[in-house]
Specification:
By secondary structure, the chain is an all-alpha fold. The chain has helices at about 25-30, 40-50, 55, 60-65, 80-85, 90-95, 105-110, 115-130, 135-140, 150-165, 165-175, 195-230, 240-250, 260-285, 305-335, 340-365, 370-390, 400-410, and strands at about 1-5, 35. The two termini are about 25 Å apart. About 35% of the residues are buried.
């Protein structure tokens, strides 16, 4: 246990206070003793998974000076390395700045001691995903290699159950079957679209509910952290802040500032927009019966030259290319690309397998190879279902959590465009702190 008592009694008279805040209350809050009770298991876990990085850090500040995303308002990742070394698990997992790091490893390659802050923050983000997950036990399962059969078995079991119940449901609902395997609805004899759409809408609905619950947990923790730092003042409205965050995520403007792993920027861009394109097509298909934008009869599968089919194929090509690029980059650059964990490889492998089985299904469909096309389609659907179900618990959740963190940064004025939120104080020797 360590206790520290910051002294703000000698704050200079000309130092600016927090906009709209009562400086005396801030000083009183900061002057209280801070009790640090190190989580030794957390320290050991971080050291083991990040290559003993914490033992090498001696707080020189080179990482924050090197990071293009760091600023006087957000001095990352030096403070996070200090909290990690002290075992301040709760403080780290609730840190909004944690999600502003893209593990480009500019800081890691510049560290004179080889402490690799980028890898440490990547491990902490994985812990944060599990910490905020709902239900948490599923988050722990989704990040264990021995749980792979279970994670794939759940969507496979749901899909099999749906197929077993297909005939009774068709009879109960009065749904007629298609006339043969050669008509446009070529999969409807085995895998009817109404059944698949219903199943995947249910899966997506559950995943979104769990994701919302996790984001609300993260948002509440970030709000508490900002209040403790004296930054709980709203600099922008919520919708305006969300707009800033979405613009940043879509443009990848922060990631583009990273210099060391420039190739990772392009591979992530390909995977991101490839996944986004495929998600839009999937959403369009499964919501077709309720989509007010669809006029006339909805024909699926799409023809090869249908705009939605072209978008799906282009998205699939981008996704496959981006995943292969990521794999090559990680294998070629080794530690310069960052320490690769199951958290990283599981997502890359699942995305790549889902895209490849999708292309395989399409090819087998065109050549009418029976029953292989149905088997390939089943495997593809299982992988897509696993992606949906694991959205709140795998590295795919970074998209949502990072967007929430960027929204919080704009909302509370922590981003570079917000008002200055620092509290300046001087010691008795005249040093600014």
């Amino acid at each position: 246990m360590v206790e520290t008592t910051p002294d703000l009694s000698h704050r200079s008279q000309g130092a600016p206070a927090l906009p709209g805040a009562d400086m005396s209350s801030v000083a009183a809050r900061n002057a209280r003793p801070i009790r640090i009770e190190p989580d030794l298991d957390f320290i050991r876990s971080l050291n083991q998974r990040a290559g003993n990085a914490l033992k090498k850090c001696f707080q020189c500040g080179t990482c924050s000076a090197t990071c293009a995303l760091s600023s006087d308002r957000l001095p990352i990742p030096r403070k996070e390395m200090a909290w990690a070394s002290w075992g301040m698990k709760e403080r780290l997992l609730n840190d909004p700045d944690l999600w502003l790091c893209y593990q480009c490893n500019d800081c890691s390659t510049s560290c004179p001691r080889g402490a690799r802050p980028g890898d440490v923050l990547a491990v902490v983000r994985q812990e944060a995903v599990i910490h905020h997950a709902f239900p948490r036990f599923y988050g722990e399962w989704a990040n264990q290699p021995h749980s792979i059969p279970l994670l794939l078995g759940i969507p496979a079991a749901l899909l099999t159950l749906a197929l077993v119940l297909r005939a009774p449901l068709e009879n109960a609902l009065g749904i007629s079957r298609s006339l043969g395997p050669r008509i446009s609805y070529s999969y409807s004899n085995v895998l009817p679209h109404w059944l698949l759409n219903t199943l995947f809408l249910l899966i997506a609905f559950l995943a979104v509910l769990c994701m919302i619950r996790g984001v609300l947990r993260l948002w509440c923790s970030m709000r508490t952290t900002c209040a403790g730092d004296g930054r709980a003042l709203r600099a922008k409205g919520f919708l305006a802040s969300l707009g800033v965050a979405l613009k940043s995520v879509l443009a990848h403007d922060r990631f583009s500032k990273c210099a060391q792993s420039r190739s990772r920027y392009w591979s992530h861009l390909a995977v991101f927009f490839g996944f986004l394109a495929l998600s839009l097509v999937t959403l369009w298909v499964i919501t077709a019966p309720y989509n007010p934008l669809i006029q006339g009869n909805f024909v699926y599968p799409f023809s090869f030259w249908n705009p939605w089919k072209l978008l799906a194929n282009l998205g699939g090509i981008a996704l496959v290319g981006g995943c292969l690029w990521m794999i090559w980059d990680r294998l070629r650059n080794g530690e310069e690309a960052g320490v690769s964990t199951f958290f990283d490889w599981a997502l890359i492998a699942t995305l790549l397998a889902a895209a490849l089985t999708g292309f395989m299904t399409e090819i087998l469909h065109y050549v009418r190879l029976e029953p292989h096309r149905h088997l390939a389609y089943f495997v593809h659907l299982v992988l897509v279902g696993a992606l949906f179900l694991c959205l709140p618990y795998t590295k795919l959740a970074h998209i949502i959590y990072r967007t929430a963190a960027l929204t919080s940064a704009a909302y509370y004025g922590r981003d570079s465009t917000g008002p200055a939120m620092r509290v300046q104080a001087t010691t008795s020797q005249g040093m600014e702190v």
